[in-house]
Amino acid sequence: EVSTEDPETAFCTLANREDLNPEEGSVHHCLYQFTRNEKLTETNKLLCDVCTQRHCGPKNNIKSEKKYVYTNAKKQMLISLAPPVLTLHLKRFQHAGFNLRKVNRHIKFPEVIDLAPFCTAKCKNVPEGDRKVLYSLYGVVEHSGTMRSGHYTAYVKMRTTNNHLSDLVLRGQSPQALETEPVKGQWFHVSDTHVSAVSASKVLSSQAYLLFYERLL
């Protein structure tokens, strides 16, 4: 679905993207690349109904041999509704000829992440005037092995119940107060039936496959 926006704000974000300067090999860099402004030209031009009607005349005069008009355009995917729980799925495979190969590279990810540079300026559930949309890490899924075989384990943070987050999930209420620190709690490593306490630094050094963040309130 393409929504009609004011050209002045259509590609504006909640916070300035240019201040990011994300480090390559980080989640910030992945998000920056995924939400970058793309130019649609040549074979990627956009079909323009307005241009087509202007070229061919009124609809009732358009014959079956109507020629469609394509135009250069810009495309950018931004977040229009900040989720209560943010799940990031990292692509950990690449094509090597006719085969798939696992990507074992470590991707840096923070305990607290700000989605504002990747949200549209008119993000629906962000209070007016707020320029931060913060999330705290509470879960990581890690895969060890190859594309053919391997083992999944998880890191989970044990923390107190957040009633405000429940209100956001169930009722869609926007946060009234903003916290900037990660939710306090103890991290645990879960591998089948074995569970052990680990440090936050151990979690942040893991080879993440799935990342789970909860919105800070």
Automatic annotation (TrEMBL):
Hydrolase listed as a keyword: yes
Listed GO CC annotations: cytosol; nucleus
GO biological process, one term: protein deubiquitination
Matching InterPro entries: Papain-like_cys_pep_sf, Peptidase_C19, Peptidase_C19_UCH, USP, USP_CS
Key words, A-Z: Hydrolase
Gene Ontology terms for molecular function: cysteine-type deubiquitinase activity
UniProt domain USP: residue ranges: 1-216
Entries under Pfam families matching the protein: UCH
SUPFAM superfamilies in UniProt: Cysteine proteinases
Keyword Hydrolase: yes
PANTHER family: UBIQUITIN CARBOXYL-TERMINAL HYDROLASE (PTHR24006:SF852)
Protein name in UniProt: UBP16 hydrolase
Organism: Serilophus lunatus
Gene symbol of the encoding locus: Usp16_1
